[in-house]
Amino acid sequence: MISLTQALETVLNSTQDFGIEEIPFMKSVGRILKEEIRADRDFPPFNRVSMDGIAIDYTLFKSGQRAFKIEGVQAAGREQLTLKNPENCIEVMTGAVLPNKANTVIRYEDVETNNGYAKIIAEGIFDAQNIHSKGKDGRSGDLLIEENTRISAAEIGVLATVGKSFVKVAKQPKVMIVSTGDELVGVDETPLEHQIRRSNVFTLVSLLERLNIPSETAHITDDKSALKAKIKAYLKEYDVLLFSGAVSKGKYDFLPEVFDDLGVEKLFHKVAQRPGKPFWFGQKTFLSTGDSNLEAIDKYHKNTIVFGFPGNPISTFVNCLAYFYPWYYKSVGVETKQEMAVLGEDVSFRPNLVFFLQVRLQIENGELIAFPVSGNGSGDLASLVKTDAFIKLPNDKTEFKSGEIFNIIRYR
């Protein structure tokens, strides 16, 4: 059994680069950007009117003129007009280019229009008001979005603005999620008294969807030969295998033995934590030459990573968040920050293990407070719906006081 720190370090030392692909920008939400996005021209590209109203030469207003003859209308999307007479004005629409020889926009709410004239009825008018100056948001060539940014709706708008109809993003790993066990039946089946429905695989599918990683699922019964045959094929076809169950000490927990038979290198088995102690982690290495298996593997695929999570639902859940998520983020080049919260109640935990304690989060006086929620052990799947995160309590003491600050792993 190794420490959580050693386990996480081992996982992070096994990250992989799955390459880059170019996809339509509208399909890129949630993906990791793999190029810098720079302005292809100034932002905005012209002096942009930011209010519907009239455009004037401010020097005339400053000298006392308040009524201006309307000379024309500058609509958005139309070529720039020129103010022919500085004593006149041009009506302007939001988003339009500022007419040439005009330098100030007064909104319609501050003018009265009558018989082709606009009379300014407000004071406090100032030079260059209601104008979004050319290049104010960025100059041509400026860096707008950094590489390794996770693309959101905000980035989509910028991509569209600079004409990036296709964008380079990190390829996603090809993932298979496998459940094992004779006691499991399908979601739409009626289980017998000694059976339960499959749930862990769908929890994992959903956790991966949060990362925009598509996945496939399979179920294998507790038959060693069947496990071996199917896993052998999966190792060749997929970048990552996620297992739920069959990694502990039970009579039918065949996975560690099957992995060994198939040449999967065990990097660790069992971590000093609760829940999820029997966690198994390893990798299958494919040789760069002389291995016919390489025909089925693209040029970026050097290893198949294997996460063997314990079968209890909370164990599977927390291990995916605590290990697979950091492994994925490092693989695609994303830096993450640890989130902290204040413990809301005293907690006592005596085993010499890191304790992932389920908590409900609440903001009080500007602080994030984590209130422990008691469940019925790592098999209590229903308890997840009542909580928001795990707070990570270290194994260097047994008493944890309200007001102390610890790392949390959110799932809401």
Map the helices and strands.
Layout lengths: L3 H9 L7 E5 L12 E2 L9 E2 L3 E4 L1 H5 L4 E8 L13 E5 L11 E4 L3 E4 L2 E4 L10 E2 L10 E3 L7 H9 L4 E5 L4 E6 L3 E2 L10 E2 L2 H10 L5 E6 L3 H14 L2 E5 L10 H7 L3 E5 L3 E2 L5 E6 L17 E7 L3 H19 L7 E5 L3 E2 L5 E11 L2 E6 L16 E5 L5 E2 L4 E6 L2
Parallel strand pairs: 5-6, 13-16, 13-17, 14-15, 17-21, 19-24, 22-25
Antiparallel strand pairs: 1-12, 2-11, 3-10, 4-6, 4-7, 5-9, 8-9, 18-20, 20-21, 22-28, 23-27, 24-25, 24-26, 26-28
Helix pairs in contact: 1-7, 4-7, 5-6
Molecular structure report:
- With 412 residues, this protein is of the alpha/beta class.
- The protein folds into four domains: 176 residues, MoaB/Mog-like domain (Molybdenum Cofactor Biosythetic Enzyme, Chain A), CATH 3.40.980.10; 48 residues, Molybdopterin biosynthesis moea protein, domain 2 (Alpha-Beta Complex), CATH 3.90.105; 85 residues, Beta Complex (Molybdopterin biosynthesis moeA protein, domain 3), CATH 2.170.190.11; 72 residues, Beta-clip (Beta Barrel), CATH 2.40.340.10.
- Helices cover 18% and strands 31% of the residues.
- It is built from seven helices and 28 strands.
- The strands form eight sheets. Strands 7-4-6-5-9-8 form a six-stranded mixed sheet. The protein has a six-stranded mixed sheet with strand order 16-13-17-21-20-18, with helices on both faces. Strands 22-25-24-26-28 form a five-stranded mixed beta barrel.
- Helix 4 packs parallel to helix 7 and helix 5 packs across helix 6.
- The radius of gyration is 31 Å and the shape is elongated.
- About 2% of the residues have low confidence.
